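Input (structure):
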């Protein structure tokens, strides 16, 4: 999430004009309110197989194929963790819970 900057004029103590920069948050998009996106992160562990991680991701996350699940399982293994989904908080909580119930090792939800 980026930020917009707007510049406004103001008066300095010596009576001349000075310029101030005010930072304001950029709109996160329609329907997202001020919450922005949330990240669902799967962590590496010693008890889940690649196949279980890949098939669980493909079953739980919309639009994810088994092949994509294998690619992410490989990323989890090699990097220690991977962001598997990002979006609105309510959906992120739902996917996070489903992945945890399936036995995957989950990082706490994070705001993007």
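Output (sequence):
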């Amino acid at each position: 999430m980026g930020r917009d900057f707007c510049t406004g004029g103001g008066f300095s103590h010596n009576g001349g004009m000075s310029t101030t920069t005010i930072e304001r948050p950029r709109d996160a998009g329609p329907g997202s309110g001020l919450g922005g996106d949330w990240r669902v992160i799967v962590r590496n562990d010693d008890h889940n197989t690649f196949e279980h991680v890949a098939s669980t991701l493909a079953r739980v996350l919309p639009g994810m194929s088994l092949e994509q699940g294998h690619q992410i399982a490989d990323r989890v293994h090699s990097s220690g963790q991977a962001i598997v989904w990002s979006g609105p908080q309510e959906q992120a909580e739902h996917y996070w819970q489903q992945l945890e119930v399936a036995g995957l090792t989950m990082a706490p939800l994070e705001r993007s």
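Notes: Strands lie at 3-11, 17-25, 38-43, 81-87, 105-106, 110-111. Residues 6 and 68 are 41 Å apart (CA to CA).
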